[in-house]
Protein: Transcriptional regulator
Amino acid sequence: MIAGRGLSGLKTRDLAREIGCANGAVYNLVEDMDELILRVGSRTLLRLDQALSTAEGAGEPSPQETLVRIAITYCDFAAENLQLWRALFEHRMEAGKLVPDWSAADQMQLFRHIYVPLATLFPKRGADELGITARSLFSAVHGMVALGLEQKLVAVPLPALREEIAGLVRAMIDGLIARAERSHAAAAP
Amino acid sequence: MIAGRGLSGLKTRDLAREIGCANGAVYNLVEDMDELILRVGSRTLLRLDQALSTAEGAGEPSPQETLVRIAITYCDFAAENLQLWRALFEHRMEAGKLVPDWSAADQMQLFRHIYVPLATLFPKRGADELGITARSLFSAVHGMVALGLEQKLVAVPLPALREEIAGLVRAMIDGLIARAERSHAAAAP
DNA sequence: AAATTCTCTTGAACAATGTTCAAGTCTGTT
DNA sequence: AACAGACTTGAACATTGTTCAAGAGAATTT
Structure:
C-alpha cells in the first residue's frame, strides 16, 4: 500500500480490508503503525543494499567509477521505488519514541558501499575521517536525488538527472583528490 | 507554533485559542491549513533570502568563496530556524492540489544567489546549463544540511558540519573547474 | 429611530483515522 | 465434555481538519 499510494495513503482500515481481517486485528501483527512503516523500511533498505552490491560486482572499475556507479544506482533505485524510498525519509517517529535498534542498524550498513572505495582512494585518512567523508558524499548525492525526483520545481528528466549526478560525483572526487595531493605536497615538499 | 513545535504540532484548535477566536474563525483568515503553511514558508524563504544577501555583501571574495559562504549561511540558517526550515520540505500538498503561483515563485528566487557566482566561474556555459548546475549544487548542499541536522544517525556537531560543507563545496567547484578546463583543452588543443 | 442587510463569530457537528477493549469464537488440552 | 488460552471482531474513543446553521454586531437605508 505504501508503494502504491505513499505513506499518507496507508490507512489501518484499508490495510485490514486488504489482508482480510478486522481493523483491530492489525495490532496483533504489529505494535504500531510506526513499527509497520519501519519494517517496510527495513525491507526497502535491504533491497537497496542488494542493488548496490549488484552494481559494484560488474567488472573491476576504478574506485572513482565505482562511486559513480553507486550514486547512479541509488538514483535509479529511488526512481523505481519512489514511494517506498520516500517513506524512508518522510517518516517521523511520533514524539518521544526513538527508533528501535534493528531499524537503526539497517541504515548504517549502507555506508560501507561508499566507505570501501573511498578508503582505496584516500589510504592516508583514518577511519573516522573516511566515515565522515562517506556520509558527506552520500548526503550530497541523496540531496540531488531527493530534489531531482521532486517534480515540484523544474521537472528534470531522469537521464539528465543521472548525468548531473555522475558529473558532480566525479567533480567532487576530483576535487577531494586534488585537495588531498595539495595538502600532501604542502606537508612534505 | 510551527517554529515551536514543528509542522505536526500545528493544530487548528490550539491556533484558534492562541489568537483568541473560535476554531472555525481560522478559516476566514486562510483557505486551508495548506495555505497557512505555505504563507509561513513564504516568510521563511524571504528571511533566508535576506540572510544570503547579507552573507554575500561582506567584502569582495572570489566566486568560489562566495559559493562557500552561501552554503555555510544556508547551513546556519537551517540550524537556527530548524523547524521552520524543515516545514519548507516536509510539507506535502494534499493530493491533486498544486502549489499556488505566489509560493512557487518564491522558491525560484533563491537560485540567483548561486547562479551569479557560477556564471562568473563558467562564462562559457549557457543559461540553461548554469541553471542546472546551480540546482545541482544547491541540492547537494541541501542534502548535507538535511542529513547533517537530522540527529538520527551519527550526531555531527555543527562546527564539524560547517567544515564538511565548506570542504565539499570547494572540492565540487575545483572539480567542476578542472573538468571544464580539460574539455576546453580537448576541444582546442 | 427603526429596519434591513451584510459580514463576522461561534460552537456544535461531521468525517476520517489511529488505537483500545469487552465480548464472542475457535482451537487444543485435560 | 469441560476448560483454558489465544485470536478475532466490531463497536467505541480520542484527535483533528473542515463545514455550517444560527446568532451578534455594525453599517446603511428608509
